[in-house]
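Human:
Care to share another protein and its fold?

Assistant:
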Amino acid sequence: MPELRLVVTSSEAATPQIRTIELASEDGGALPPYRAGAHIKVQLPDGGERPYSLVNTDPSHNATQNPRSYRLGVRLEEDSAGGSSFMHTLKAGDVITAAGPENQFAVKQQDASIVLIAGGIGITPILSMASELTAAGRPFDFHYCGRTRSALAFVEPLQAICGDALTLHCDDEPDTAVDLGAVVSAASSGAHLYVCGPRGMIEAVRERAHEAGIDKDHVHFELFSKHDEQVAGGSFEVEISSTGEVFTIPPDRSIIEVLEEAGVDLIYDCQRGDCGICQTGVIDGVPDHRDVILTDDERAANDVMQICVSRAKSDRLVLDL
């Protein structure tokens, strides 16, 4: 991914907790193209990085294929001392470094009907999908969920882009509060669902889809969650079945981090528990499932786990590695 030097052209409050940040190339040139679902990784002052979805409210091909600016929507997390607090202090003229764009959440189905579901700051990639689908003349249904109406960002451009396809859901308004079971049940046969938002919402959509007989491959999601929050927990042991080696996984590190450091050859990608690439067989022990991939039935079987975020309820796990 190319390294980008980006200058902040504006930073404005979209809601009490969400800021929209406009970025342009420091040299004034065009930025790399992208598709809906893409993100850039912003370098933080402490040396870390945070991914932020690119927000497109312009349903035209040129907006993403020859962009002159990028837009981000950033929610200020409670007690943040990292990415969101840094992003919320940015002002016009500030320069940041980022990598990207990168996309693991693009709409791929050409003919299937589409249902878009966003919760909270999960609106950022889903809004871009609505713009892309509108530009392509493809129909879709859009459900945007929040705790209150004042917490919903980008409502005006959403209404312009989606028209009657948009339904707003507010937890504090009984007449509009979302019923995810009803949303999923209303999806047409063969529909694909694209979901982004809190873990609980993603898990609920996934489970309602499973109950409705919707193919697992038809439910696509991106989880907005901090890696360090997902791996927190007590220490436990992992035994590699092929070698008998035993490793201790401390509270602040993931299975992947410990095993890879020890030279175990692993395949993985997102490290958030939402892509399924690191799924590993469990021969013995009880996993503490923290992913959003497995259904409740698959979790209860305890014979596979996502080793990027899941941990252990037993003292030791024996993995099929």
